[in-house]
Amino acid sequence: MTRQIVSVIGGKDAGPGTAYDSINPSRIGEVVARVGLADAETFATACRTARDAQKEWAAVPPPVRGRVIASIGRLVEANTESLARLVTEEIGKPYAEALGEVREIVDTCDFFLGEGRRLYGQTVPSEMPDKNLFTFRVPVGVAAVITAGNFPVAVPSWYLVPALLCGNAVVWKPAEYAAASAHALYRIFAASGLPDGVLNIVFADGQATYDGLSAALEEGTVHKVGFTGSSAVGRTIGELCGRHLQSPCLELGGKNPMVVTPDADLDLAVEGALFAGFGTAGQRCTSLGTVIAHSSVHDEFVRRYAAAVAAAPLGDPTGDVVLGPLLDHKFATRFEEYLTWIEPHHTVVTEKSGRITADNPRGDFTGEDGLYYHPVIVDGLRPTDRLFLEETFGPIVGVTTYESLDEAIDLANRPGYGLSSSIYTTDPKSAFRFRAGIGAGMVSVNNSTSGAEAHLPFGGNGKSGNGSRQSGMWVLDQFTRWQSMNWDYSGRLQKAQMDVAEITPDLEFRL
């Protein structure tokens, strides 16, 4: 029986909206959920509802809010298999990866449950007597969170958990093609005891979301925007927020490089490149974009990499596979466009490309009726190629060569993204030179470009974001604002920088 899903505002289902079918990409004839997409006014209404609920939630002591976060973690843990199966069904993520994604929510909750007791401010000495200075973290108010569907439950938790812990109310707009997974996560959060209106979920398309967000910013009912998605849409969100003097939290795309040095362990580098390039069918913001291999190891690396990709199991995501299908029809259409960027001077070192069908099979696998595509390695990239410069969301990895580490760093930075990066080397000097030179917000040494932990900052620079960070204690700066207070108990007006006691040194003194 097909799930029927609508927005939930103030604890109540919203109207039916415009029908949208979220499909199973491994069996495109199977509808996972029929979703009612809301209009812009519904989004704006949700923001007003959140504003009305936020003050009462902010008055709950932070350690108590931390206990709510703890309950969310335990509820997610108890529902791990069900939630992971739903993620696999709706977006085609291999089940083992879906389990890891759900585990990341638990880890996030485990970290932040204690932050309710550690929303530290400081007591600061004053330059005047009988006066104390303090700083406090205060909630921003209402956060509008807009997330992509490639990580339909883990990435939203990076926003929702700290935002709620800090005393904010939230309006969450997940990707419509991952609506069933998002709705399930919302129900888990609601079961934790959150008051109605503190967390609201709105399903809407891009235009309705933009128009509703614009109206809410104009009304003053949204005080922070969190967005995970493409660099192009992130730029639009940033422009909108800037007009209202707000700084959004933007987590955008990547063209993530992996440098392979002459002294690298090639088998380890191939293993990392396989997972980074083709895990989740290359549909991560941290997926490997370009391998930058030293000329002395380039040919051997490519030979081993092509063999590993050829042997990688691809198919039904409920099984033990590296690659499942693409997320949705729109991503399949875009991926087919990326394949047209392959130029005559390139070499496709994998045997086939395009959609897997009976006429274009991968071994015995014909793709059945899913959105399955051949993984592609393209060698011979040049720094001016679109495949080198632009994000390609899907199972395609480029390869180029370098002679010096400085050249490799320059190539790694050239596309202008700055999310994740990797270097495979056994030389500590190379590792630290790469770290110092790369513009990415995240650096891996002898590890893949993909992989986040709940207590490390996650985020990028350049086309990959505006420098904001998620995860760990660093995300608290996104969902709180600093407030300072001075308390003068001297009984008289003491004017800063004017009534300060003077101590006169003898600056002519010499031994």
What are the salient characteristics of this protein?
single chain, 511 residues, alpha/beta, Aldehyde Dehydrogenase, Chain A, domain 1, Aldehyde Dehydrogenase, Chain A, domain 2, seven-stranded mixed sheet, five-stranded parallel sheet, 36% helix, 20% strand
Layout of secondary structure:
Elements: E1 3-5, E2 8-9, E3 12-13, E4 18-24, E5 27-37, H1 40-58, H2 62-78, H3 80-91, H4 95-113, E6 123-125, E7 131-139, E8 142-146, H5 154-165, E9 169-173, H6 179-190, E10 199-201, H7 206-219, E11 224-228, H8 231-243, E12 249-251, E13 256-260, H9 266-278, E14 288-294, H10 298-311, H11 329-339, E15 347-348, E16 376-379, H12 386-389, E17 396-402, H13 405-413, E18 420-424, H14 428-437, E19 442-445, H15 476-479, E20 480-488
Parallel strand pairs: 1-5, 8-9, 8-11, 9-10, 11-12, 13-14, 13-18, 14-17, 16-17, 18-19
Antiparallel strand pairs: 2-3, 4-5, 6-7, 7-20, 15-16
Helix pairs in contact: 1-7, 2-4, 3-4, 3-6, 4-5, 9-10, 13-14
